[in-house]
Automatic annotation (TrEMBL):
<comment type="similarity">
    <text>Belongs to the BOS1 family.</text>
</comment>
<dbReference type="GO" id="GO:0031201">
    <property type="term" value="C:SNARE complex"/>
</dbReference>
<dbReference type="GO" id="GO:0000139">
    <property type="term" value="C:Golgi membrane"/>
</dbReference>
<dbReference type="Pfam" id="PF12352">
    <property type="entry name" value="V-SNARE_C"/>
</dbReference>
<dbReference type="GO" id="GO:0005484">
    <property type="term" value="F:SNAP receptor activity"/>
</dbReference>
<protein>
    <recommendedName>
        <fullName>Protein transport protein BOS1</fullName>
    </recommendedName>
</protein>
<keyword id="KW-0812">Transmembrane</keyword>
<dbReference type="InterPro" id="IPR027027">
    <property type="entry name" value="GOSR2/Membrin/Bos1"/>
</dbReference>
<keyword id="KW-0472">Membrane</keyword>
<dbReference type="GO" id="GO:0000149">
    <property type="term" value="F:SNARE binding"/>
</dbReference>
<dbReference type="GO" id="GO:0031902">
    <property type="term" value="C:late endosome membrane"/>
</dbReference>
<keyword id="KW-0653">Protein transport</keyword>
<keyword id="KW-0813">Transport</keyword>
<keyword id="KW-1133">Transmembrane helix</keyword>
<dbReference type="GO" id="GO:0012507">
    <property type="term" value="C:ER to Golgi transport vesicle membrane"/>
</dbReference>
<keyword id="KW-0333">Golgi apparatus</keyword>
<dbReference type="GO" id="GO:0006888">
    <property type="term" value="P:endoplasmic reticulum to Golgi vesicle-mediated transport"/>
</dbReference>
Length: 211
């Protein structure tokens, strides 16, 4: 359970570093946003797994400590998620302003037509459709990346499960080998005791006959 808590702290640290890059403007690419989105999903799943293990802890002191850690992790997760939503909204507003400024620049650079609002509406609709297409593409990329991270996490869990199963099988084999040695020793000891008993009976009968 402690390894899972350390894994959650490591995920949280990575998310903070990525959000810092995003907030400072070092990297505002779609790839980084998808990475942050997947990281948040993975962190939430890790917290849920850790919470489930904490509730099954038999030792009360360890259980209380683990539940406190779960509360801290959830608070940090909500903080990171709110920060990411705020930064995404900021970038969306910037993109909208840039598209609007570009659209206005094109209007000023072109001659005024007979119906001045006719072409403006068409270009604005085109810009909105382009913006919607970019947002939809970002969402699909986030889903693909999240699915890939989930598959990787499942493989990691399966690897740990196989390792635990292998360890239990080795322990069982060692225990079985020890049990066989003990059984063989008991069988040899029983045979020796049987012959000693038979010999004692013969000696006793012979002594009684002699007397």
């Amino acid at each position: 359970m402690s390894n899972l808590y350390k894994h959650a702290l490591k995920q949280e640290q990575g998310l903070r570093q990525d959000l810092e890059k995003f907030e400072n403007g070092e990297d505002v690419s779609v790839g980084l946003q998808g990475q942050i989105s997947v990281g948040l999903t993975s962190l939430k799943r890790t917290i849920d797994d850790y919470d489930s293990l904490a509730k099954r802890e038999m030792i009360l002191v360890k259980q209380e400590k683990a539940l406190v850690n779960v509360c801290k992790l959830r608070d940090n997760y909500n903080e990171l998620k709110n920060q990411f939503d705020r930064l995404k909204q900021r970038e969306a507003n910037k993109m909208t302003q840039n598209n609007r400024a570009e659209l206005l620049g094109r209007r000023h650079n072109t001659s005024t037509p007979e119906y001045p609002f006719q072409h403006g509406v068409t270009r604005e609709q085109h810009a909105l459709r382009e913006h919607d297409f970019i947002n939809e593409t970002d969402s699909k990329l986030d889903e693909f990346i999240a699915h890939g991270r989930e598959v990787l996490h499942n493989l990691y869990d399966q690897n740990n499960t196989l390792k635990n199963a292998q360890r239990k099988m080795l322990d069982a084999a060692n225990t079985l080998g020890l049990s066989r040695n003990v059984i063989q020793y008991i069988e040899r000891r029983s045979t020796q005791d049987k012959w000693i008993f038979i010999g004692g009976v013969i000696i006793t009968l012979f002594s009684m006959w002699a007397i």
